[in-house]
Amino acid sequence: MKKGKGKAAKKAMKFAERKAKAEKWVSEYDGTPYGGDIIKAYRKKFAVDRMKAVVELQMLGVSLTKEQIDREKAAVKAYQDIQRDKKAKRKRLREQKRMRKDIPVFHEDQDETFYYIAGYTSGGAPYGITWEEMGMSPYTEEDDW
Description:
This protein is an all-alpha fold. It is 58% helix and 0% strand. α3 (38-46) packs across α4 (50-59).
């Protein structure tokens, strides 16, 4: 049995272990759950992925149509494409975020004095310089600067 705490982990088992249960389930399947989609019903009952369900049903002697198999393959490919797109988007956003960290942002109403004194802008004061060395006083009003 797979490690985990969920219902799916408890249901998941190797095909050899679930073969007897699966054979009985296939012989009794009447098409009621999931609108007669035996692949979906098998997936939900035995907690397997799409292609594993197709392979195991064929091993159990269930004849699946080419359309059913193609539909499952297309669904797997679509899922993989979505995951690949999400991964690329996350990578792109991480890169953009990293690039934004390198550039200080100035707003129209923001005083650039701090960035200048701290040395964040080109030509800024070196680290460790004091207010007095800059010719400023930290206790005066902004109008005096």
